[in-house]
Please model this.
Amino acid sequence: MDFGLQDRVALVAAASRGIGFACARELAREGARVFLCSRNEGHASEAAAKIKDETGAEVRGLRADVTNNADIARFVDEAVEHAGHVDICVTNAGGPPATVFADTDLDMFRQAFEQNALSAIRLAKFVLPGMIEQKWGRIINITSVSVKQPIEGLLLSNTVRAGLTGWAKTVSNEVAANGVTVNNVAPGYTLTERQDELAEVRGKASGKSKQEVIATWAMQAPIQRLAAAEEIAAAVAFLASERASFITGVTLQVDGGWVRGLL
Model:
């Protein structure tokens, strides 16, 4: 299937590793011109070079903190300067710490909102005007299955990502007539560095090894394993494609059946 992404210009946030890196690589494999960012300039450059070597695509790695207005403005400006416009924007950021309400102060909520909601909204603010003008665009937010079925012990993720989902649905309606789609991809348990860190925290709290925690997560899904980051990236590439032109305002869980609800 031709996704129609040849020479499309894609921004991928927080893409030096994990799901963000997998998304950048998948879009590059489909022929997109990819601009990725990381808070660490060296990590961004290394990730870009690795993807470029593997795919032969044009890939640039830039330093940008998704919680910083000036950084994101510069990130978008550099992409537009080099490529002329932006077609696809994949918003992404590291997840907030595992916590419960009794152990969470208001500053933690503010930080989580900044990192996992406002970071995506900020990127959209910078790229949407150009997408609307050119009558074509894709915004894809990496969220979590917690927006459909809250996860015990992940209070901040459950709270903030649900807010981003409401924002995305609202904005998708506002821009749909301009040829711009706004969707969310909600990963289930995925084999990334972030998941490894969560397993460590859960293991210490429950007296289990990290491997036991990961095995428990795997058994919660009917498919009985964790996702590979590449499987999340494949869903992102589809939603970015010409083939997904009539899909907007949805939250697509990629979770091996973990969410038990119908919708």
Remarks:
- The chain has two domains: 9-188+228-254, 190-226.
